[in-house]
Amino acid sequence: MKKIAAVMWHSHTTTMRRAGELVKDLLDLCCYSARFLEEGKEDLARALEDIKEADLVLFYRSTGEAVWEELEAAAREAGRPLVCTAHDPALWLSSTVGPEVAAKCYTYVVQGGPENFARMLRYLAAEVLGEEVSYEEPLTYPWEGIYHPDAPHCFSNVEEYLAWYRLKDAPAVGILFSRSHWVNANLAVEDLLIRLFEEKGYNVIPVFCYSLKDAELGTRGSGEVVRDCFFDREGKPRIKALVKLISFFLEARTRSDDFLQEGVAAAGVGLLQQLGVPVFQPVASFYRTVEEWAGDPQGLNQDIAWCIALPEFEGVIEPPSSPGRGAKGSWSSGSPCRSAVGGWWSGWPTGSAWRKSRSRSERWPLSCTTTPALRWRPRSEAGPTSTPWRALRGSCSGCGRRATRWKPLPMARNSLKPS
Predict the structure, then answer these.
(1) How far apart are CA 234 and CA 212, in angstroms?
(2) Contact assessment for residue 319 and residue 369, using Cβ atoms and an 8 Å cutoff
(3) With contact defined as beta carbons under 8 Å apart, do 57 and 51 qualify?
(4) How far apart are CA 235 and CA 294, in angstroms?
C-alpha cells in the first residue's frame, strides 16, 4: 500500500484526516498540522520520518510558520514526488511535479469537504503514483447560501429561505459565517447560536459565504452577500442585529493586501452604516481547545489579531463568546464555550421585548474574551458616528475574570483602537 505524508494549513487538517478514513483501503495517509508542528503540539521528528518513508509528499502551504523550510528540505532529500499547493500560486513552484497537478489539487481543496479531499488523494494515487485506481473530478458546492439545521438543504437566496422559514412577528437576527464551516459540517457554534436566538423568540437568517472576493473562483465576498441577504428589495435592513463570525473585512479580495488597507476597512464601515444595526463579533479561537483557553490566565493569544484587531477597524465593538476547538482523537472541530456564550446571552432581551421597545440602547452583557490587560478606547477620528462612550468594568459571568469594555451611548458602530 502506497503512503502519502501530508502537512496542511491548520484549518484543513481535520478534513484531510477524515478523507484518509475514506481511502484507508487504498492509501496509508499520515497528516500533520503545520501550526501544531511549529508550536510543538505535534511531533516534528515523527513528521520528518514519515516524509522520508512516504511515496508522495503533499503540502498545503501557509506563510506563517518557519517549520516549512525544514519540511521542504526533508521532502527534497527523500527524493519523493512533492506536491505543493497553496492559496498563493507562487508557492506551487516548490512542487517537483507539473504545475497542472498543483492546480488540480488546489481546486479540490478550495471546493472543500472530506469527499473532495478523498478524491484528491485518489487523483494523486492515479496520476502521480501510477496506481490503477479511478478518481473523479471535484464536487462543486455553492460559494454562498442560507443554512438552517432543520432545513433539508441550503437555500440559494433569502426569498426561498424565508418562504420555508415562515417568519414570526418578531425581529430578525442575521448570522454571517464561513463557507468552510458549512462544507465541512463544522457547525456546532452556528447551530448553538441559531437555537439560542430562536429560544428567545427571534427570527434567524444564518448566511454562509466564501469570505473573500475572487474573480477567478467566482466568489463575491462577504460584503455583497450582506447586501443581498440582509437588505430587502427596497434597500431597507431585514435584520435588527448582525452576528459576524468572519474576521476578514467585508470588502476584502483574495490574493491581495486588503487586510492592511484602511480604504477597504472604510468600505466595510460604510456598508455597516447603511445596515444601521448593532454588530457583534464573537471571538473564535482557531488553535486552542476550550479547555486550553479556560486554563490560560491570558485568555487569547495569537487569535487577538484576527478576532479583535481586524474586526475593530470596521467598527465591530462586541466580542462576546469564545468558541474554541473540540478534540476527538486526532480530529478537531468548533466547540462553543457554553459558559461564555451564556454570560453574553443572558443580557439579550426576548424577541417580543425588543419588538415592543424598538430601542437601540438595550443593555448588553459584559463578556471577557481578551487578556485582562487589553483595554479599548474610541477612535474619535474615524467611524460611522461620534457618540460618547463609557467604560464598563466587571466580571465575566462565564469565567469570572475581570474585564473592561467600552460601551457606546447609544449603541453605535464606532471604530476602536487599542489604547
Answers:
(1) 26
(2) yes
(3) yes
(4) 42
Tell me the C-alpha distance between 118 and 283, whole Å.
Answer: 31
Residues near 84 by beta carbon (within 8 Å), at least 6 away in sequence: 59, 61, 72, 91, 92, 93, 94, 95, 102
The β-bridge relationship of strands 213-214 and 203-209 is unpaired
Q: Which H/E stretch holds residue 165?
A: helix 158-165
Inter-residue contact 162 to 229 (CB < 8 Å): no
Q: What is the pLDDT of residues 133-181, one digit of tens each?
A: 999 999 999 999 999 999 999 999 999 999 999 888 899 999 999 898 8
pLDDT at 130 over 70: yes
Note the pLDDT tens digit of each residue in 316-343. 655 655 555 444 444 444 556 555 555 5
Residue 418 has pLDDT above 50, yes or no: no
- CA distances to 87, 121, 152 from 97, in Å: 18, 15, 42
Residue 182 to residue 47: CA distance in whole angstroms: 30
pTM beyond 0.85: the answer is no
Bridge partner residues of 173 (DSSP): 204, 241
**Cβ contact 264:252 at 8 Å:** yes
Nearest-CA neighbor of 7 among 94, 89, 135, 90? 94
- CA 397 to chain centroid, in Å, comes to 25
Task: State which H helix or E strand residue 198 sits in.
Answer: helix 188-199
DSSP letter, residue 357: H
Q: What is the pLDDT at residue 11?
A: 84
Residues in the chain: 419
What are the grid coordinates assigned to 306, written together? 484576527
Model confidence pLDDT, tens digit, residues 219-275: 887 888 888 999 998 999 999 998 888 876 666 655 555 455 556 666 667 777 888
Instruction: Count Cβ atoms below 10 Å from residue 342 Cβ, excluding itself.
Output: 16
Residue position matching grid coordinates 489604547: 419
Cell numbers found for residue 142: 455553492
